[in-house]
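Sharing a chain and its predicted structure for anyone who wants a worked example. Both blocks are below, sequence first, tokens second.
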Amino acid sequence: MVPMELSKIIITETSDHQIIVLKEKDGPRTFPIVIGLHEAWAIDRAVKGITTPRPLTHDLIGNIIEGLNTEIVKIEINDLRNNTFYAKIILQRNGSLVEIDSRPSDAIALAMQKNAPIFVARNILEEVCKQGDSL
């Protein structure tokens, strides 16, 4: 797994498709992931530290995780099939790890809220950068 960081959020309110760009922490490689508008807003709010009067969906999920005395250890983008990325949220509770299947956008939104690290499988990073998707 390669440590990554959120590099850019590109929000276009007139489109259903938004883009986030992940960058290799200790290297030059980057790649985009197309996400939905609500997820882009959730990531943007988390990055900017903007709170809402009542919890929105990603806030609720983060509150549930915290309320169950569980923490997000990391998120992993672990698969790419038919141009669709797949991710897992890795939780820890009472010393045990639990993997939760997730869309990358939801996992990244939670990672941004809880300051959890983001990782991408090495083979996926090499594949998307080889395909010329690197920005």
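Comments welcome. Strands lie at 2-10, 18-24, 30-35, 71-81, 84-93, 96-102, 118-120.
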